[in-house]
Amino acid sequence: MGKIKVSIADPVISDEEIEEVVKVLKSKIIAQGPKVEEFEKKFAKWIGSKYAVATNSGTSALHVALLSCKIGKQDEVITSPFTFIATGNSIIYTGAKPVFADIDLKTYNIDPKEIEHKITENTKAIMPVHLYGQPAKMDEIKSIGKKHDLFIIEDAAQAHGAIYNRENVGNIGDMGCFSFYPTKNMTTSEGGIITTNNEEFYNLARKLRAHGASERYLHDEIGYNYRMTDISAGIGIAHLKKIEEFNLKRIENANYLNNNLKEVSAIKTPYLQENTTHVYHQYTIFIRQGHRDDWVEFLNEKGIGTGIHYPIPLYNQPIYKKLKIKGNCKKAEIAAENVISLPIHPSLTKKDLDLIIEAVKEASEKLT
Ligand SMILES: Cc1ncc(COP(=O)(O)O)c(C=O)c1O
Predict the structure, then answer these.
(1) 86 CA from centroid of ligand 1 (Å)
(2) Residue 48 and which of 13, 121, 260, 351 are 20 to 30 A apart at CA?
(3) Ligand 1 neighbourhood includes 310 CB (under 6 angstroms)
């Protein structure tokens, strides 16, 4: 591999984030404390939801959200197989079974038409993933949920600030879950958050995050230690001030790549749905000609960092096979074989973007 000149991710850690963390360290309240509460209030306000519960990861946010809807053994949750494994695992942690519905190859998100076929008497919830920062088709998903009395838990891990029909994702279903892993559109180092407008879910989620305690040392649920620290919340508070700016930069970068790559017939650039704001957590292209792995090798050789999101549909993961968690989603399999994510983060310069364009054009000449 050549030396990577344009990296696939580059978390913004400037003086402001450092100062926030130093302030927290100096306060000596370094586990969950007032900064977490401040971050929750600010995040909820930004998303437009009544409540937010911060956690120590996006995975724990999903787990707690499912438990807050009382999902467990014998239940089924319909989701996409074309996602990070945390989506499926959070369902498995509760004792419920993930049931996979195929995706739409335009957006790579779950196809609402595929959801209806998967509903059984055990289905309790739908967990759409807003993959790459592009909102899933929430109107259709919500009306299926309403018709069959199902909870909707949004996996918005990759979609901070994405908008669907004027509504922020994470504020459309019953609960929304975000991740603040360092590669995400905003970070807290590790971290996650649940958003909801339902007071009952909110109260249970808060309890489950901290060992099921209704008051100090009085536990009426088996909960977890899923608390966020004030150190993390400090970074989150600093990033929350800049997230709109970060997202705009990602969108601007994506528009520049789209305009310059639209003539390259060997690839398909990201599709943009109407009435949505795609916040480009990833800028993912589909390889129409040539072999995807050759493209990756070529781009890396030219110094362009790449990612494969994701190479294996969840039901084909070794552990899912062992657990006999099955799926048959042909479009997800096609996507898994042919996608490549290119750098899109807000720190890219015009020179970086031009290097990406040049490398993609060259690959299309040499590999097809
Ligand atoms: C779609 C999706 N769901 C869930 C998660 C889990 O988030 P975390 O890594 O913060 O646990 C991630 C992040 O990696 C993700 O991309």
Answers:
(1) 6
(2) 13
(3) no
